[in-house]
């Protein structure tokens, strides 16, 4: 009977291990396939075309150029390699400006012909219309559509995922924002985290430590949205006053909140490491006449350095992946940050804010998955660092 | 995924509790969520033998759920996109559109800001980053801090359509995850400007009068919006599969009834009957022929 139970338990453990690994692999596979779909999407919105007059020699436009044209920042075809001719843009919503309801028909059945004729009559016009509306025999030219290129995505500086006719998915500002805010977060968290850890491991009497340790670990249990709200109502106005900023939502507010959130990880891991420093090392140092502080700084910290380092890296991991708190305090402006006092936008915040409303399967949806893939690689890299550091630790202690 | 599970569980719980009544599932826009919940409660107090489950998630989520048949009605604060229409056509669904209410957007600034009114052109320039100082529009010498909703919210889309005439916002715009966050930020930032739904307007922020023609300025209120004077008004939609008309029709009729529309007004939205708003495109419901065949299991009402 007992043997049977043991066998059953063994099988159960094996099975759960396999199932979990399989699920993780499936999730990663899903993330990658959805993300990679982005590069098979066209730059012009699905189902639409950009129609030109047949005299117009312009055939290709980049996504940035299309945006500039429809924002009326570029107003002449000369800038796009065409004739010196003013650009007129036409969207479906403009149809009522040119035609009456009767001309278009009750079910807008004549709209396609009318628009085709309109473009034919205006040499400088570019019309953004559904492909299905254009009559087959229309003598129009079309902008050649191309796939979204990885270069535009990874080094592009503009994130306009819902712009029409052509969305811009430049992820560089988001990536820079994530790294920038995490870097400062760890810069703030490190000195505080280490000093708390040293104090608790070496200096604090056990009574104080018994109060402190659960208190710090309690920080881990606070939901991140609470941190976010704390940041928005306390830290943001405070920064605004102290630095005299026009706007308080900034990378700095984000890094302070993240630093507070990363503290418990760093403190707990570092403190445990120092307390686990072999008693023999400590006693040897003291026996040689070293003072308490010399022992801590020359023996205890170096011997537990790799554990402390992995604690720090885990803290960075927490900061990089944090969503809700940064979403609320960094202002989410998708610009490449030049200083920490400017608003910025991080990858997790972008995914959280936009995924809910992105049409499933569309380019925007896939771009958000692509961001997920980037985030995956960042955390993967961080985890590799932890592995490497702690394996060195083991080798040294052997 | 978790959401869907939750719904399944709640559907199951309600089915067992009420003796296998098929619940109407409504999902989508967070703008419409409080209104729909209030209306559903009223409806259920009159029709005790039916049940309704309302969940939020965003316009896009609601429409995607309609496609996958995990909801019966999708709430949306924007019209379905062409790409979504194509997916509906591909999966053989014929969707119908109903405007259930109108929502006005108020442009808000910090109460300390002396500016009282702006034209559409000025708003466009501010939100596109062409005007960056309040002194250019008759205010103090202070940098303008522009707040917006995040890129995929229906409110963001509508403001872009109506006020920016489909041009893009500047890239350095601050995008906030929720209306509450915009109010909080505008309240504590002197140079701030942002936009919120009329129902969210409170004394901590100051609403600006807006003019589209540059002559007559109107302050946002239910009255000015209903009379078609205040220009930034958008329709709010319900979408449903036309085959489910008999199943969901009763609730929709109830919403459009005088009693339902009175509640719409109470919630700070503009009722459909009063309408003719200037800004929103007032598209009538497309009646593409009633398809009365219904899956038997869908309309089980004891």
**Helix-strand category of chain A:** mainly alpha
The main β sheet of chain B shows up as: 9 strands, mixed
Sheet with the most strands: spatial strand order of chain A: 2-3-1-4
Number of domain modules of chain A? 3
> CATH topology of the largest domain in chain A, which one?
MetI-like fold
Total of helices of chain B: 10
Give the strand tally of chain B.
11
Query: In the residues of chain B, how many domains can be counted?
Result: 2
* Full CATH superfamily name of the largest domain in chain A: MetI-like
What is the average of the pLDDT values of chain A? 88
Largest sheet of chain A: 4 strands, mixed
> Per CATH, which architecture of the largest domain in chain A?
Orthogonal Bundle
**Oligomer, anyone?**
heterodimer
| CATH class bucket of the largest domain in chain A | Mainly Alpha
- Biggest protein-protein interface? A-B, 48 and 45 residues
Radius of gyration of chain B: 21 Å
Features:
heterodimer, A: 398 residues, D-Maltodextrin-Binding Protein, domain 2, MetI-like fold, 3 domains, 4-stranded mixed sheet, two-stranded antiparallel sheet, 16 helices, B: 302 residues, alpha/beta, 9-stranded mixed sheet, two-stranded parallel sheet, 10 helices, elongated, disordered C terminus
SSE arrangement:
The complex is a heterodimer of chains A (398) and B (302).
Chain A: H1 2-36, E1 48-52, H2 63-70, E2 88-91, H3 95-98, H4 101-104, H5 111-121, E3 125-130, E4 141-142, H6 150-155, E5 159-160, E6 168-169, H7 172-203, H8 206-221, H9 224-243, H10 251-275, H11 279-287, H12 292-303, H13 305-321, H14 324-329, H15 347-354, H16 363-397
Parallel strand pairs in A: 2-3
Antiparallel strand pairs in A: 1-3, 1-4, 5-6
Chain B: H1 2-17, E1 24-28, H2 33-46, E2 52-55, H3 59-67, E3 73-76, H4 82-90, E4 95-109, E5 117-119, H5 120-127, E6 145-149, H6 154-162, E7 174-176, H7 179-188, E8 192-197, E9 206-207, E10 209-211, H8 222-226, E11 233-241, H9 245-256, H10 258-266
Parallel strand pairs in B: 1-2, 1-3, 5-10, 6-7, 6-8
Antiparallel strand pairs in B: 3-11, 4-8, 4-9, 4-11
């Amino acid at each position: 009977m007992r043997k049977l139970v043991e066998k059953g338990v063994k099988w159960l453990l094996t099975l759960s291990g396999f199932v979990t690994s399989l699920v993780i692999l499936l999730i990663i596979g899903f993330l990658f396939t959805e993300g990679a779909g982005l590069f098979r999407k066209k730059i012009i919105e699905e189902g639409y075309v950009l129609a030109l007059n047949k005299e117009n020699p312009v055939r290709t436009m980049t996504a940035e150029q299309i945006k500039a044209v429809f924002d009326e920042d570029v107003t002449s075809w000369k800038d796009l390699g065409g004739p010196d001719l003013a650009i007129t843009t036409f969207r479906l919503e403009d149809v009522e400006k040119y035609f009456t309801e009767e001309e278009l028909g009750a079910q807008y059945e004549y709209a396609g012909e009318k628009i085709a004729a309109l473009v034919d009559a205006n040499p400088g016009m570019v019309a953004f219309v559904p492909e299905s509306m254009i009559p087959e025999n229309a003598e129009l030219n079309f902008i050649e559509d191309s796939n979204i290129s990885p270069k535009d995505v990874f080094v592009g500086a503009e994130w306009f995922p819902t712009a029409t006719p052509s969305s811009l998915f430049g992820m560089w500002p988001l990536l820079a924002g994530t790294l920038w805010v995490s870097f400062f977060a760890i810069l703030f968290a490190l000195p505080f985290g280490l000093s708390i850890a040293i104090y608790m491991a070496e200096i604090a009497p056990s009574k104080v430590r018994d109060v402190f340790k659960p208190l710090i670990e309690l920080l881990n249990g606070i939901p991140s949205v609470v941190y976010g709200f704390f940041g928005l109502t306390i830290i943001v106005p405070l920064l605004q006053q102290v630095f005299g900023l026009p706007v308080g939502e900034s990378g700095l507010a984000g890094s302070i909140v993240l630093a507070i959130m990363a503290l418990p990880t760093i403190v707990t891991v570092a403190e445990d490491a120092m307390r686990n420093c072999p008693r023999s090392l400590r006693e040897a140092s003291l026996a040689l006449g070293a003072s308490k502080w010399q022992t801590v700084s020359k023996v205890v910290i170096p011997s537990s350095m790799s554990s402390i380092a992995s604690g720090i890296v885990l803290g960075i991991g927490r900061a990089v992946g944090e969503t809700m708190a940064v979403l609320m305090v960094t202002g989410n402006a998708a610009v490449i940050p030049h200083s920490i006092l400017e608003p910025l936008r991080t990858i997790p915040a972008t995914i959280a804010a936009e995924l809910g409303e992105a049409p499933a399967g569309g380019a925007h949806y896939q771009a958000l998955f692509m961001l997920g893939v980037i985030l995956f690689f960042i955390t993967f890299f961080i985890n590799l660092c932890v592995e490497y550091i702690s394996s060195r630790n083991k080798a040294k202690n052997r | 995924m978790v959401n869907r599970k939750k719904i399944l569980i709640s559907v199951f719980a309600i089915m067992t509790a009420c003796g296998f009544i098929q619940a109407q599932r409504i999902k989508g826009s967070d703008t419409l969520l409080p209104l729909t919940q209030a209306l559903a409660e009223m409806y259920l107090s009159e029709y005790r033998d039916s049940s309704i489950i309302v969940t939020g998630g965003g316009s896009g989520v609601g429409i995607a759920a309609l496609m996958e048949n995990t909801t019966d009605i999708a709430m949306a604060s924007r019209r379905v996109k062409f790409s979504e229409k194509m997916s509906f056509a591909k999966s053989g669904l014929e969707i119908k559109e109903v405007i259930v209410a109108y929502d006005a957007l108020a442009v808000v600034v910090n109460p300390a800001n002396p500016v009282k009114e702006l034209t559409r052109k000025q708003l466009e320039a501010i939100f596109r980053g062409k005007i960056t100082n309040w002194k250019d529009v008759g205010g103090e010498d202070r940098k303008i801090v522009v707040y917006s909703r995040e890129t995929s919210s229906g409110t963001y889309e509508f403001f872009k359509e109506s006020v920016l005439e489909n041009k893009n916002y500047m890239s350095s715009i601050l995008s906030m995850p929720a209306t509450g966050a915009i109010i909080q930020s505008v309240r504590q930032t002197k140079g701030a400007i942002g936009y919120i739904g009329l129902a969210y307007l409170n004394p901590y922020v100051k609403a600006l009068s807006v003019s589209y023609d540059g002559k007559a300025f109107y302050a946002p209120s239910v009255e000015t919006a209903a009379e078609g004077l205040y220009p930034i008004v958008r329709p709010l939609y319900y979408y449903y599969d036309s085959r489910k008309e008999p199943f969901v029709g009763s609730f929709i009729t109830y919403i459009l009834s005088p009693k339902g529309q009175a509640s719409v007004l109470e919630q700070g939205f503009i009722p459909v009957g009063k309408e003719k708003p200037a800004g929103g495109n007032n598209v009538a419901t497309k009646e593409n022929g009633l398809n009365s065949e219904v899956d038997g299991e869908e309309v089980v009402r004891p």
